[in-house]
Write a structure and sequence with these properties.
By secondary structure, the protein is of the alpha/beta class. The chain is 35% helix and 14% strand. The chain contains 13 helices and 10 strands. The protein has helices at 43-59, 79-92, 112-121, 133-136, 149-159, 181-189, 220-234, 243-252, 303-307, 310-315, 324-327, 332-335, 357-381, and strands spanning 8-12, 64-70, 98-105, 123-128, 168-174, 195-199, 241-242, 269-272, 277-279, 293-297. The chain has a 10-stranded mixed beta sheet with strand order 7-6-5-4-3-2-1-8-9-10. Strand 6, helix 7 and strand 7 (241-242) form a beta-alpha-beta unit. Helix 2 packs parallel to helix 3 (112-121). 42% of the residues are buried.
Length: 384
Amino acid sequence: MVGTPIRQVLLKVHSRCNLACDYCYVYQHVDQTWRNRPRTMSRSVVELAATRAAEHAQRHDLGRLTVIFHGGEPLLAGRELLAHAARAVRMAVPVTTTVDLRIQTNGVLLDEAFLDLFAKHGIRVGVSLDGPAAANDRHRVFAGGQGSHGLVAQALDRLRRERHRHLYGGILCTVNLENDPIEVYRHLLTFDPPRMDFLLPHGNWSTPPPGRRTDTADAPYAEWLIQIFDEWYATRPQRTRIRLFESLIDLLLGGNSGSEVVGLSPSDLITVETDGAIEQGDALKTTEEGMAATGLHVASSTFDEAIAQPSFQARQAGLAGLAASCRACPLVRVCGGGLYAHRYRAANGFDNPSVYCRDLTRLIRHIHARLSTELSALRTREPG
């Protein structure tokens, strides 16, 4: 049985990076298969991947398909290859499918020439930044130890100008418990992002994330995020959108999630590596070497063949694919068991709650309480 259709295709156009972030899920975790892959995706692989995406969109009559240029650092692939990739995808995908092209970059190389190229091809840009210089440069550094904040700030200043504002996808920030959350949030707001998201650092029960002890009842990541939520939520209108918070609010109100981190929506993302290998999401590279692999290649296999594999099916199983303790939890339809990779334990695979279970529980209950208070206040003001 073929699973949920793919609606997000992540193309690894370059497999190396010009930063040496010490928390990187590609280079600093157990899966080191990047070492044996080409640095840059060839034009022929780009075209094969575009063809596979197009046939999948046509077969499933997709109204929209998102293609994300990724890495490593995708800007290292160069302007010519990125332009070729954009053209190849748009030419291959049927006109009945709207193509949403995006690129996720560390911003170091994001100059006017790249922005002009992205404007020409309609590529929206997401940039990674972890806060002000002292916060960002704890981990997001060059190989020699120099911080990246200054160059990324310059890139964001270019991106938010009126000329390029329509390309501005938003900012991704990895949560670091050492950093002050309000200071981080307010600094990111100075770049006027239309959207931001706060990412929990990848970890699991066998390799817990920084500061997350599995033998205590504390919820440090929830407490960090709650401080930002309270300031963001109290500001009307909100100055930016925050995907995690909006997803949890939507789920609590009976809607759907816009994030793979929460909710029961099945994963609809597939990855094509620089050599053309078809894989699942990168987060699985933090569990065991080869966990993201399918053994398939765009030259010989379709995306339908990939999502028919048991490993893909497991990520698309929804409620039935969760651990028994998750299925019995009253918050399960909101939490969704957390990100799939965060459930991993060497002894029993993914049959566990998220390593962030207590954090997600605390955060969800806090947001629920805020919503309940506001809804109660609105009801009392309704005419009798």
